Predict the structure.
Amino acid sequence: MNSTQITRAPRATQAISGAAAARRHVQRTGVIARQLEEIAPGTVRVRIVPVWTTREGAGRTRRWVVLDGANGAAAADRAQHRAALGLITRMHPGADWTKPQSYDARTGELTLDTPCAPAELTAEAAR
């Protein structure tokens, strides 16, 4: 009697689908990097941090945006910061924006932006 059994997909199929996913990631990273370059030239990293503010008695959460270049902060005005925030939040709708996030335009990765101590302090604390 024939019985149904679960079979694994052949390795060639997995390789093809993995390569297609990698191509989509590279294309998407390139598109975001080009758009960030148009918004604020020299931007390599976008840091987004939620900040609690109280204005006129009402408290609310805002997002603070920092645009970093290869050699420090990128020169950008308020409209450029707002455009970069809109771009990153639209391209990553499933991200948890209640926590600080960092987007690297070179790798296309959005990571949790956790504060860390300089290497000198961590080495001295370990002694």
Observations:
- The radius of gyration is 21 Å.
- Residues 84 and 90 are 10 Å apart (CA to CA).
- The mean pLDDT is 86.
